[in-house]
UniProtKB/TrEMBL annotation:
CDD domains in the record: WW (cd00201)
Protein name listed in UniProt: WW domain-containing protein
Source species, domain of life: Eukaryota
Listed InterPro entries: ABRA-related (IPR053233), WW_dom (IPR001202), WW_dom_sf (IPR036020)
Residue ranges constituting the WW domain according to the UniProt record: 62-95
Length: 148
């Protein structure tokens, strides 16, 4: 989104206000804590499964698939609704895809380790960007940050 949320159409600002979304924060970079939280949600051990961390980052950026809308329930919790099927879910519609990818990629990694084509444990480094958009590497085991 643009740096200035007031430049967005009023309908977008109204929906964001209804859902409690801070439009100015949408352009903010993903933090290591957000990646760590998403990794845990997807069943990834962020300190030992560095090869899976890009999936956690991708899941954080996943848009709503076509046909899905987001609403709030009576308690103020967001939920997702698919217009064509009338399916509702409190989980992002892309979550199932990412959970399946984690399982597939983990199984592929285990096979590669058994075949001697991959290291058993990879260093959990992931490239992120700071508030100024400058890239850096972050280690999820040591909390070390290194310039790109």
């Amino acid at each position: 989104p643009p740096a200035d949320p007031s430049a967005l159409p009023s309908e977008v600002r109204e929906i964001a206000a209804y859902l409690g979304i801070d439009l100015a924060a949408l352009g903010a970079p993903i933090t290591p804590d957000e990646v760590r939280e998403m990794a845990a949600y997807l069943g990834i051990d962020a300190t030992r499964e560095g090869y899976l961390l890009p999936l956690a980052r991708m899941a954080l950026l996943a848009p709503l698939p076509r046909g899905w809308d987001i609403y709030k329930d009576d308690a103020g919790e967001p939920f997702y609704y698919h217009r064509a099927t009338r399916r509702t879910s409190y989980r992002h519609p892309a979550d199932e895809y990412f959970i399946a990818r984690v399982l597939d990629d983990r199984a592929r990694h285990v096979r590669a380790v058994q075949d001697g084509g991959a290291a058993r444990v990879s260093e959990p480094w992931l490239e992120l960007a700071d508030g100024a958009g400058e890239p850096y590497w972050y280690n999820f085991r040591t909390d070390e940050r290194a310039a790109v």
